Amino acid sequence: MPMLKEQLSLFDEAIELTVAEPLEAHDLEEIGTVIALDRGIAMVRGLSAVKNQELVQFPGGVMGMVYNLDPHYVGIILLGGFEHIKAGDCVKRTFMVADIPVSDSFLGRVINPLGNPLDEKGPVDAQRRLPIEREAPPIMHRAPIHDPLQTGIKAIDSVVPIGKGQRELILGDRQTGKTTIAIDTIINQRDKNVICIYCSIGQQISSVTKIIEILKRYNALKHTIIMVAGAEDPPGLAYIAPYAATSLGEFFMESGRDVLIVYDDLTKHARSYRELSLLLERPPGREAYPGDIFYIHSRLLERSTHLKEKYGGGSLTALPIIETQAENLSAYIPTNLISITDGQIYLSPKIFQMGNFPAVNIGTSVSRVGGKTQLPAYRQITGMLKLSYSQFEELEIFSGFSAKLDEDTLKTLEKGKRIRKALNQPKYSPIDVTEQIGIFLAVLNGVLDSVDLDKIEESEQIIGKIVWENEAFRTLLMNRGTLDNDTKNGFLQMVEDRLKKELGF
């Protein structure tokens, strides 16, 4: 008994010494143990004080993001290759959240969602780091959207214009030209002081490589950052990619610059999140998506805005892309995103199959904000354009039931065919907004009624030259002036004379 008391006394002294001389903070480490691993997620026991969305480190330097805090274990999303990780491995806390380096040096580079270069051009000098998950700017920090962001695509700039700071959804079935519209918009930002970020989510590397080559060919890579989370990467990288790209865009926006960001596409992003949620044993909802699928996209897109001058004055414009199936706009993910965004550009497979590119369905597409940013001269003619084209589409359907048509109907049909032809445009060939106004002025006022359909494209090129030669006309349009009758009639007469001379009609 005395021996036991003596041992307990020695033990108490040891405790007192430990309390009296605590270890330094940097000597403390909280370590957990991997108890299960499955296709991009890990279950870890032992990290009792870890926080949600904290980064943890696995053997080999692979990082993971804490996502489930259960009583007996922690669910972690892996952000790197996990082939060498196994049950029993140690996991260390980093006491940091997932972030990305930000810098002007990223322009023209290809990176992954963690900010690591993928283009073999060496490391990037980072000015600072920003967390990938950030609060959206409060309402009082936001300014009205008043500047247009020109896509260079006639069918969009005329009918569904986009403003700087807007969120415009691009949706349509597979292979209808959704990515092409986004790439055209990026190409059109050359020399316009707009920084572009193309965020590729879950695409094949061959597709991304092709896009990089197109941007190089059209001299658009120097103002663009390409972020890639490939189809072969862990689903965790695909999940964080759009948030990381947005943080990179916010760095430029907060310094007073205009940014365009393309998410290609959020269908794959939603599927990645569904896969991770099911592996983490979160309760599934409609179509097996977790209950917060709406929230993950709303908190992403709410970060796109136009800031007031005292908060930087920059803007972040978002073009999220979503894929529909069998033209079903009422599917779960498309309806979620339509309700979040400020309008949508719908690409119809039927229009695509008719050979009309881009295959924009004017009746279904809408811009809830961009019309206010449109040049006044353009706004003067878009109302007539929509009306004439919708009348033509109705008459075209009914004309198939009748062999005899009156003269007025035939004229409407012929003008409608020329409007449709004018709305067509080859890919990767954006057109200046002043040229677009000149083309539609000529079409709507009957100047091209006598021109054969196969010569409409040639006529457009001639009209474009006239616009660029007429400096006073261009200056009036760019300074947000309106077209009076004398200016409009003078321009139309000039176009008619030149077309007669060069095309001989």
TrEMBL record:
ATPase F1/V1/A1 complex alpha/beta subunit nucleotide-binding domain ranges (all copies): 152-367
Binding site for ATP: 172-179
Family label: Belongs to the ATPase alpha/beta chains family.
Topological category with respect to the lipid bilayer: Peripheral membrane protein
UniProt keyword list: ATP synthesis, ATP-binding, Cell membrane, CF(1), Hydrogen ion transport, Ion transport, Membrane, Nucleotide-binding, Translocase, Transport
Domain ATP synthase alpha subunit C-terminal, chain residue ranges per copy: 374-496
Gene Ontology cellular component annotations, sorted alphabetically: plasma membrane; proton-transporting ATP synthase complex
Keyword ATP-binding attached: yes
Keyword Cell membrane: yes
Function: Produces ATP from ADP in the presence of a proton gradient across the membrane. The alpha chain is a regulatory subunit.
Ranges where the ATPase F1/V1/A1 complex alpha/beta subunit N-terminal domain occurs: 29-94
Swiss-Prot/TrEMBL site (Required for activity) positions: 365
EC number of the protein: 7.1.2.2
UniProt name for this protein: ATP synthase subunit alpha
Predominant location: membrane
Gene: atpA
One Pfam family linked to the record: ATP-synt_ab_C
Organism of provenance: Anaerobium acetethylicum
